[in-house]
Specification:
Protein name: KY-like immunoglobulin-like domain-containing protein
Pfam family, one: Ig-like_KY
Mean pLDDT: 92
Order of helices and strands: EEEEEEEEEEEEEEEEEEE
Domain KY-like immunoglobulin-like: 20-125
Helix content: under 10%
Number of helices: 0
CATH architecture of the largest domain: Sandwich
Largest sheet: 6 strands, mixed
InterPro entries: Ig-like_KY (IPR056564), Transglut-like_Superfamily_Mod (IPR053041)
Number of domains: 2
Strand content: over 45%
Number of strands: 19
């Protein structure tokens, strides 16, 4: 669908694009300089990359414009150095407001400030595939290579995990009550095969649990089975 044929919705002036703190926070647009993003008919997802200052805290919201409904579970946040990568997979055709919030490392919270807003147009309709739930510690420099989804009714019982988690001492995937250790292959990089052959009750979870210091594990990601 050509960009010029897409009629944009009425949006309050100044809502799309950089907001008050964008420049003073040292943020930069790495992938998409235009605040209006047009996806193609056959394009199920888009990745937006934001450059930040070291230690910047980030959160996002993805909101369906037509349905007035938040659907942030369709955005996967990943980090590469001081860049945040937002993989967005809209669940239905239409317009989506993608809102980015930030707070510098040395600024008091807990409220983050809206720093940039995109308007995304998705013309295509694809399979409903939300990403795993991401807990706050996940946004501290982590990157998930696979799996970004666990499909319903897993056909292959062995699922490969590969994830980068800086400063992690141990990483385990807990499926139901079973703990599956991942092996460290490089500093911060953990990978391995996890057995999903057991039939799990509806609503069961697979959790990526990480130990940084001491004996306690923190959940960073949570998949619905």
């Amino acid at each position: 669908m050509a960009e010029e044929k897409v009629q944009l919705p009425k949006i309050t002036a100044g809502l799309i694009g950089p907001q008050a703190k964008f420049l003073s926070y040292g943020l930069s647009l790495v992938s998409h300089g235009d605040p209006v993003v047009y996806m193609q008919q056959d394009q199920p997802e888009v990745e937006i990359i934001l450059g930040t200052e070291p230690g910047t805290r980030i959160m996002v919201k993805l909101v369906s414009h037509e349905r007035k409904k938040e659907c942030t579970e369709y955005c996967l946040i990943r980090c590469m150095g001081d860049k945040f990568l937002f993989l967005i997979r809209p669940p239905l055709p239409g317009f989506y407001k993608f809102q980015i919030y930030a707070l510098l490392k040395d600024e008091a919270g807990p409220q983050m400030l809206n720093v940039y807003n995109y308007l995304i147009h998705c013309p295509g309709s694809f399979e409903d595939k939300p990403f795993p739930k991401q807990y706050p510690l996940w946004k501290n420099g982590c990157y998930l290579e696979e799996p970004i989804n666990l499909p319903k009714g897993i056909k292959d019982p062995m699922v490969r995990y590969k994830v980068f988690i800086p400063n992690a001492n141990d990483v385990q995937v807990k499926v139901g009550e079973e703990w599956n250790p991942l092996q460290q292959t490089d500093p911060g990089m953990f990978e391995g095969l996890v057995d999903f052959s057991t039939s799990y009750a509806p609503g069961s979870k697979a959790k990526l649990n990480v130990k940084f210091v001491g004996n306690n594990y923190n959940t960073l990601l949570e998949y619905s089975l």
